[in-house]
Design goal:
By secondary structure, the protein is α/β, with parallel strands linked by helices. It contains nine helices and 13 strands. The longest helix is centred in the middle third of the chain and has 18 residues, at 140-157.
């Protein structure tokens, strides 16, 4: 029996970013924002189950049925979002990670504790033509929500070329007054360096470079063009931690250049409200 239908039905139930793990011998689980696992189906998957799910998903992406040792592919489902599937072999059985990127970006008023403070930041940000805006915070998805709320307003109110390079893409932006180019680094390009170089053929006004990983060596940042607006996001808890990682990954010259162009450091946090909802707070550290 294939459980693909149950998994797709789960994806339909929420407009949020979703991260699902399918491992033989374990129940299908989604990883919550707090790191906890939540079961999707109360049944342990077999090796046959994960293979059948994988084949069904690859068929949805119009990919030939011959399976590889490892692979990443993506496809869209109307009214649900963009689906990215990565898989690999583990002792002869397939392990899958399914990431859903929603089409709908939450409205700022729904996610910020102080919407006035966010709009003030947007108004100041929208007047800049170049510089680095560094988004840090231990919750990667919260960082992404901050950035995409900003990009959503820019897309609505300004005529810009906006390029995003992420691993993985956290939200999908549609063209508004701005032209939107979004690339998933692990799907759309062979390397991060290539993704950054390709982007400059478009001469973008704003570049968003974001990653969900703490294991990055950050040397790819040396390929960024500093003479435009660069929004950079990593799930580091503080600037001190980020700076140490940057020192160990890049040249002294780049570190000096980076600091010269660094305009703001934004530290994003999650605040737990009395009604059990989570909203975003942030602090802007001027350089």
């Amino acid at each position: 029996m294939s459980y693909t239908k149950e998994i797709i039905n789960y994806l339909k139930q929420t407009h949020k970013f979703v991260n699902i793990f399918l491992v033989p011998g374990f129940e299908p689980v989604v990883r919550e924002d707090n790191g906890e696992f939540k079961k999707i189906i109360d049944i342990k998957l077999t090796e046959k189950d994960t293979k059948e799910i994988l084949l069904t998903l690859r068929n949805s992406a119009s990919i030939p049925k011959t399976l590889a040792v490892k692979e990443i592919f993506s496809f869209g489902i109307p009214e649900i979002g963009r689906i990215r599937v990565s898989y690999f072999l583990q002792r002869g059985s397939y392990v899958l990670n399914i990431v859903k990127t929603p089409f709908i970006i939450p409205e700022p008023i729904d996610i910020f504790v102080d919407i006035g403070k966010f709009l003030d930041f947007y108004n100041k940000f929208s007047k800049d033509n170049f510089g680095i805006f560094l988004i840090l915070g231990s919750r990667w998805l919260a960082n992404s929500m901050f950035v995409y709320s900003l990009l959503k307003l820019i897309n609505k109110n300004q005529k810009k070329i906006i390029c995003t390079l992420e691993n993985p893409i956290s939200f999908l932006l549609r063209h508004g007054n701005s032209i939107i180019i979004q690339r998933d680094i692990t799907v759309d390009t062979d390397s991060k360096e290539e993704a950054i170089k390709d982007m400059y053929f478009l001469d973008p006004d704003i570049v968003f470079y974001g990653s969900s990983s703490l294991s990055e060596n950050l040397n790819e940042l040396e390929y960024l063009d500093m003479h435009r607006i660069n929004i950079i996001s990593f799930p580091f808890s503080s600037y001190e931690v980020f700076e140490e990682k940057l020192k160990s990954s890049t040249s002294d010259y780049f570190l000096r250049t980076f600091k010269q162009h660094l305009r703001n450091i934004i530290i994003v946090q999650i605040e737990h409200l009395k009604d059990l909802k989570e909203k975003i707070t942030f602090e802007v550290l001027n350089i």
